[in-house]
Amino acid sequence: MYGYPKLLEKLIEELSKLPTIGPKSAERMALYLLRTDAQQAKSLAEAVVNAREHTRKCKVCNYFAEDEICPICQERPRRDKVICVVEDPQDVIAIERTGRFKGVYHVLWGKLSPLEGTGPDDLPLKKLLSRIQEEKIGEIIIATSSGREGETTAQYLRQLLKPLNVKMTRIARGMPMGSTIGYIDQATISEALEGRREVSA
Amino acid sequence: MYGYPKLLEKLIEELSKLPTIGPKSAERMALYLLRTDAQQAKSLAEAVVNAREHTRKCKVCNYFAEDEICPICQERPRRDKVICVVEDPQDVIAIERTGRFKGVYHVLWGKLSPLEGTGPDDLPLKKLLSRIQEEKIGEIIIATSSGREGETTAQYLRQLLKPLNVKMTRIARGMPMGSTIGYIDQATISEALEGRREVSA
C-alpha cells in the first residue's frame, strides 16, 4: 500500500496546522498547489515569509505595522484624543471599516483568561497607562468582546484606569442590525432592554 | 480608514486563491500565521516550495513521483498485470488504502469535459495504449467517476481500447456501505438493482 510522496505528505501536514483546516481540506489545498501553475505556489510561499518577516507590532498601539509606527498612529496628531481598546488586530480593521471612529487604538492581543493562563501581566497595560497620560487622552472606549472573558477584561480595565480620572465608556450591547427578537439569546435581549434609549416622536 | 499592512493583505489574497477558502478564512489563516511561532510559518512556506519543486508525474503511470518512476511502478514486476484507470491522483490513494488492489494505475489527471474544454488529446491516452501492449496487460479496470463526464470518459475508453482485445471492466455502482435506500438518489438505486448479484442462502 502506497501513500503520497513524502514532500506532499509534509505539505498536507503543514497546511492542516492552520485554523479550521482539517486533513481533507489540507489534502485538497495541497493537491491544488501541485496542479496550479508554479508561480502561484511560489507567490503563496513568498507571501507567508514576507508577511511574517516584515510585519511587526506598532511601538505605540500594538496594531500591525510595517514601520516602527503604524499608519494610524502616524496620523495621531490629526486624530481625536480617544483610545479604543480592542482585543485583536482584526477588531481595528472592523472598526476602521465603519469609518465612524476618528480616534486611535490600543490592541491588547488577547484578553484576561484564567483558562488560557492569560493574566494582566500578559497584556500591554502599562503602555496603555503611560499613553493615556502622555497623549492627553480624553476618553477610553473599552471595546473588548461581550463574552465572559471580555467582560472580565473590561472590568479590570475600569479598575486599573479609575485613578487616572479619564472618561471611560464601554461599547453598547444590544440587538445586532437585521436581527429579530425571536432569534436573539436572552442575555442580549436583557442588555438591549437595559440599554434602551429615548427616541423622539 | 486604514486596512491591514500591504504584506498581510497580499498574504490574505494568496491564501484566498486556495480551493474552498473564502476571504474570511484566508484572513483568519493569515492572522494565525503572523501570530504563531516564526518556525511554523517558515515550515509551511518551505513545504509549499519543496513539494512543488520535487514532486513530478511518474513517467509510466502519471501518478505523483519523487523520482522518474513512482514507487508503485517500481514494484511493477511483482504487481498484477491489471491497469486501473483513474481520473485523479487522490483516487490512487483511495484505492491503495483499501489494500485490495494489487495492480498498477494510469492517472488521467482529468476527464473528458466539453464544458472545461478537455478533449481526448488532453488526456494521456496514447501512453495508455502503448502500456497495454508493452506491459502485456490482462485487464483494464475503468475507474473514472460515476457522473456524466466520468461516464463519457469511460465510454470513450471502451471504444478506444476495443481493438486491443484486452479485458475491460468498469467499477461497480450501487449503494455505498452504511447507506439506507430511503436516502439514496434514484439513479443509484436503479444501478444497484441493475447490478444485483445472486447470493447463496
Could you explain how this protein is built, in words?
Two copies of one chain form a homodimer. With 201 residues, chain A is α/β, with parallel strands linked by helices. Chain A folds into two domains: 6-54, Orthogonal Bundle (Helicase, Ruva Protein, domain 3), CATH 1.10.8.420; 58-198, Dna Topoisomerase Vi A Subunit, Chain: A, domain 2 (3-Layer(aba) Sandwich). The first copy, chain A, has helices spanning 6-15, 23-35, 38-54, 71-74, 89-98, 125-134, 148-161, 186-194, and strands at residues 56-57, 64-65, 82-86, 104-107, 139-142, 167-170. In chain A, the strands form two sheets. A four-stranded parallel sheet of chain A has the order 4-3-5-6. In chain A, helix 1 (6-15) crosses helix 2 (23-35). The relative contact order of chain A is 0.08. At the A-B interface, helix 1, helix 2, helix 3, strand 2 and helix 5 of A face helix 1, helix 2, helix 3, strand 2 and helix 5 of B.
Query: Structural class of the secondary elements of chain A?
Result: alpha/beta
Unreliable runs of chain A: none
Oligomer state equals homodimer
What is the approximate shape of chain A? Answer: globular
Profile the largest sheet of chain A: 4 strands, parallel
Give the helices and strands of chain A as they follow along the chain: HHHEEHEHEHEHEH
How many domains of chain A? The number is 2
Structure annotation, total helices of chain A: 8
Strand runs of chain A, count: 6
Q: If you consult CATH, what is the topology of the largest domain in chain A?
A: Dna Topoisomerase Vi A Subunit, Chain: A, domain 2
**Cα distance spanning the termini of chain A:** 76 Å
Proportion of strand residues of chain A: 5-15%
Q: Which protein chains are joined by the largest interface, and how many residues does each one contribute?
A: A-B, 59 and 59 residues
Mean of the pLDDT scores of chain A? 91
What's the alpha carbon Rg of chain A, rounded to whole Å?
22 Å
Helix-residue proportion of chain A: 40-55%
Strand order of the largest sheet of chain A: 4-3-5-6
